[in-house]
Amino acid sequence: MSDIRTLIGKFEEQARCLETTPKIREELFQEVHCYTEKFLTNLKKAPTYWKGQENKEGFSDNPLSEEASSLKDILNFFQEQVIETGLNPPSPGYLAYIPGGGLYPSALGDYLAAVTNRYAGVFFASPGAVRMENMLLRWLAKEIGYPESSAGNLTSGGSIANLIGIVTGRETKKLRAKDFHKSVIYLGAHTHHSVTKSVRVAGMQDCLHHLIALDDKHRMIPELLEKAISQDKAKGLTPWLVVASAGTTDVGAVDPLDEIATISEKYQLWFHVDGAYGGLFALCPEGKEILQGIDKSDSLVIDPHKSLFLPFGSGAVLVREKKNLFNAHNYEANYMQDAIEVENELSPGELSPEFTKHFRGLRMWLPLKLFGVSVFRAALSEKLYLARYFYEKVQEIQGIEVGPFPQLSVVIFRYLPDCGDTNKFNQRLIQEIQEDGRIFLSSTLLEGKFTLRLAVLCFRTHLEHIDLTLDILREKIDYLLQK
Ligand SMILES: *Cc1c(COP(=O)(O)O)cnc(C)c1O
User: Fold this and answer.
1) Which residues contact 478 (CB under 8 A, 6 or more apart)?
2) From CA 14, how far away is CA 104, in angstroms rounded?
3) What is the reported pTM?
4) Which of 32, 272, 358, 450 is the 20 to 30 A CA-CA neighbour of 412?
């Protein structure tokens, strides 16, 4: 027995350093604080894109070792091998894809969540954590206009939220594998790839996918949806799901949600709205108007790591009827017999594929409490107006052709040269802009046309950055014309 005590003692001696002392914590904290301050101060000047740095091999040359390293060395390595590669989404000049956020108080929320390590998956384990997340979800539901009978889940992102919504629809419609080959899903031509991926991950790739054409503003045409449904029914097929976009990634188009809701009710379809990019614009009056009908959906995805400016890792799904979300995800396990529900609060573990999970409510709750909700409404209105401002101003550049008036905060446009290949010119234009690095735009292909897009969503992006973008566009077009 004394042998084993000696042995344990030897291991203990080493293992004890996993618990840091106050002095060490102070040093570590200062070091990280110093690093993040430098990062934030430099953000204005830092490139939006570290081009040609994709092939850094640092991690293979610097694997884990049995020995400890100093935090200073680790942070230097991190800066060089992680930060200075690829895109810089928290930068104010980042106007591509769907921009990122990264509110500082969210980082502190993550810090608190990690240090205190509450078990947020089950009410019994952390009633407070679950109450906080449920309160946030109820707040989101209320802003959207969902009834009190709704429920939701804070997810890691929009893709998982789409998966939860679609699985909930599948279970509510009681579809089984034998039905899939006759079941039809209706999607817009610009539906995000995560929706079809979710359908496949949900085991339903054998469902028929019916793509509905878009109008000249890139929105699903309801008449064509209804026609497709009735034709499919006449063929003996089972229409069961329609997915509308509340802000497509391509052009920020919002499908006519009200009309789609009416059709989906008439034909008893599950109506899922992918509002990962745009759903949270419901927080501001301008957005709420555009999103009319979003409250009539059966399930809805919104991404706080997009339009609530949180760091990546925060999505949300809302389901109109709590029982549907619960029935699709609840579980029973003997080892959970102590975890009796003592209150009328559902646990995340019963409403999502996750069990043990990141206490991600804290990174959302802290900034909302600290700043107050009104600041978020204003920031979202600002982003909408910045897109409208850009839409007006960019047309003053001779030769620019714009797409439709921006419904949300994405503007599409391209340059029409007097001669030469228009697609090639715009491809070179985007390359010049990206190589310059002060701002970052991305592109898309619309009916074969190479189109530039500006997406305003980073909370750091203001009027000065839109003006800078316009200057850079003029500069690069002139440069390419003179070449
Ligand atoms: C970003 C996005 C998604 C995917 O969400 P993730 O958070 O990236 O997983 C889905 N749909 C739309 C419309 C999006 O913009």
Assistant:
1) none
2) 35
3) 0.96
4) 272
